[in-house]
Design a protein that fits this description.
The radius of gyration is 27 Å and the shape is globular. The chain is α+β, with helices and mostly antiparallel strands. The chain has eight helices and 18 strands. The two termini are about 40 Å apart.
């Protein structure tokens, strides 16, 4: 298995100038590739081959020969992907055409060396090397230097040894909007991770983007205020995207760590793809609910769960989640749940709505799975946060570290008394189950 890693690099001013010039050379090479391919197609009505393209680009740029070949490979891959999309009916997909001023610098294995301390050294051009200062944990296959949000980022790929499949019990995962991940094992124990912070970030972003839309409609295009608002809007989008990506990583990491701790060897994940389609036409959801469902980020969660489980040796498969929230695990009756607690009107079964749905994912693949006597779920947040509460005890005003929403990860033991040096410190290993 090939795994990609990244690290922020801090070049000196002279190195930064050198990297910028190399990015310009890569952009000029890309622009020539685009123009050569277009001219060849206009003249012959066929695409130029990768070999002919690489021959025409030899010894023309101040770049390593492997970097020029990597740019030609990238163009041909993009062209092939666009052709497959167009063949499947997506005619809006365009072939590579854009003219670049700067471009990501790719490096193949011949342009990558390691120093005596195993630091990655990249050959930018003839006799010019760049010391990245990064020590990779395993041998490097390919590298790229990206410019992201005002800083240089080194991305490299390396071989990763897949662990052998482990043996254990079966677990199911329900992906949702209120709880991004609800996990349940076949014996009724499970984990529910709150999505409160994720929803708050999305709500703030939606309100801010609505404000930006109104403010931009009142400005003259290309005015100074218009440009200032555009920059601020993109800054907001970039910041919230980073926050959400971090929270999705935290959510899925907690789920996989729980699987490792409890010995879950197979995960059956519900696939909610298409749940947002035709909601307005069929009048199934309100306007606000449609917005929430369309922004759930299910694709990101599925991707993170799949590759993290693969790294841990846990098998995964995806199943449709039709009626998993409605069906009773005890009698099979379909009920319309209200709130977070599922109640069956036929047999009286009660349980956590999302946790029960996670158990029903197991039933989708293994219909003969018996219903546990009791469901027990731990409630966690992606990043534990505690709220402060004031309490009077014995006439002294104390600041008590209260429980975080949806249950804490660890229990604070010591109360902080005003004016004293006692500080509440969470003790590792003390977990709370809801």
């Amino acid at each position: 298995m090939i795994k990609a890693r990244h690290a922020i690099i801090h070049p000196s001013p002279a190195q930064a100038i050198l990297l910028k010039a190399t990015q310009q050379q890569a952009a000029w090479c890309w622009n020539d590739i685009v123009s050569l391919a277009k001219a060849h197609y206009d003249f012959t009505h066929t695409w130029i081959s990768k070999g002919d393209l690489q021959k025409k680009l030899k010894r023309t740029y101040k770049l390593h020969s492997q970097t020029v070949q990597a740019l030609a490979d990238k163009f041909c891959d993009s062209r092939q992907a666009a052709a497959s999309y167009r063949k499947n009916g997506n005619l809006k997909m365009k072939y590579p055409w854009r003219i670049k001023k700067f471009l990501t610098i790719p490096f193949k294995q011949m342009a990558i060396k390691a120093s005596g301390r195993r630091i990655i050294l990249l050959t930018l051009s003839s006799q010019i090397q760049f010391d990245t200062g990064v020590i990779p944990p395993s041998p490097v296959r390919t590298c790229e230097i990206l410019w992201r949000k005002g800083r240089y980022v080194l991305v490299w790929t390396s071989d990763y040894i897949e662990p052998a499949p482990i043996e254990g019990i079966i677990g199911g995962i329900d992906i949702g909007e209120i709880h991004p991940v609800a996990l349940c094992g076949e014996y009724g124990h499970g984990l529910v991770v709150s999505g409160r912070e994720i929803r708050s970030i999305k709500q703030l972003r939606n309100k801010s983007l609505a404000w930006f839309s109104v403010a931009l409609s009142r400005c003259m295009k290309r005015s100074r205020r218009y440009k200032k608002l555009i920059r601020a809007r993109w800054s907001l989008i970039s910041k919230t995207d980073d926050q959400l990506l971090n929270l999705y990583h935290q959510v899925t990491r907690k789920a996989i760590n729980y699987c490792i701790e409890k010995g879950i060897a197979e995960l059956i994940i519900g696939d909610p793809a298409g749940v947002e389609k035709n909601t307005k036409k069929e009048k199934r959801l309100s306007r606000k609910s449609r917005q929430k469902v369309s922004q759930m980020g299910t694709g990101t969660i599925k991707k993170h769960l799949e590759y993290k489980a693969k790294e841990a040796g846990i098998a995964t498969c995806f199943v449709g989640e039709r009626n998993t929230s409605k069906e009773c695990p005890a009698c099979g009756e379909l009920n319309h749940p209200r709130g977070r607690v599922y109640r069956c009107s036929s047999c009286g079964f009660e349980g956590h709505r999302d946790g029960k749905a996670a158990f029903m994912m197991i039933r989708k693949k293994y219909p003969d799975t018996t219903v546990p006597v009791r469901f027990r779920f731990e409630h966690k947040q992606p990043i534990p946060k505690y709220r402060k509460a004031w309490d009077k005890k014995g006439g002294d005003l104390r600041m008590v570290t209260g429980a975080c929403v949806d249950g804490p990860d660890v229990v604070p033991r010591v109360e902080k008394v005003l004016g004293s040096s006692a500080i509440a410190r969470p003790l590792g290993g003390e977990s709370i189950a809801a």
